[in-house]
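In the lab's daily routine, each protein ends up as an entry in a very long ledger. A line of letters takes care of the sequence, but it says nothing directly about the fold. The three-dimensional part falls to structure tokens, numbers that each stand for a local backbone shape. The outcome of that step, for a single protein, is printed below.
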Amino acid sequence: MKKLKTALLITAATATLFACSTSKNTVKYDGMLSTEELEMLNYPLADTVLKYSAEGYKDWELTNEMDLLGEEISANLKNQATVLQMGQGVLISFDRGQMYNSGQYHMSDEMKSSVQDLIFNLKENPNTYAVVFGRTDAIGSTEFNDNLGYMRAAVVANHMRNMGVEKDRLFVESYGEKYPDFFNFYTSGRDRNRRVDVLVIPSNEMRLEPAR
């Protein structure tokens, strides 16, 4: 995880991968996406998974393990987030409801409740990392939104740490207004672009273990 920011702020601190719509239909968790299929996606979070993926038989083994974890997270979060398994990673996109007001980084009560459910799964699976990506709508400057995205990610990561997830497992990044999954032209689209995504990937130990 050398290229990911590890600093967590102490004091203040995607929807679907395949469509840009304003629909609020539930995305059904529908099983395993292989590393080979992941390589064909033009999606930045897919690139993050591939960057840290093991190869050979270990790839198959970890992909299966993360598929099972994705099912567990999806069942636990129910309709609070979109959950997609992506090769050796699980993406949790908190894109349901209004998670953030425009320009704000403090978590709403709805967001805290959803993150708390994910924390349960992270504690149950200690051999994983969680990369928190802050995202914004397109209101304001690019620089402002980059900083806002980082603050959103840092606040969520700090909350996870305060609730017992080891800080060495937590990483934060900002996408800001880049790569919107919903149309910023519509209010409903802006609401869903203001969020965090959490990418759960195997720890270094899991990737380096000999394949069984």
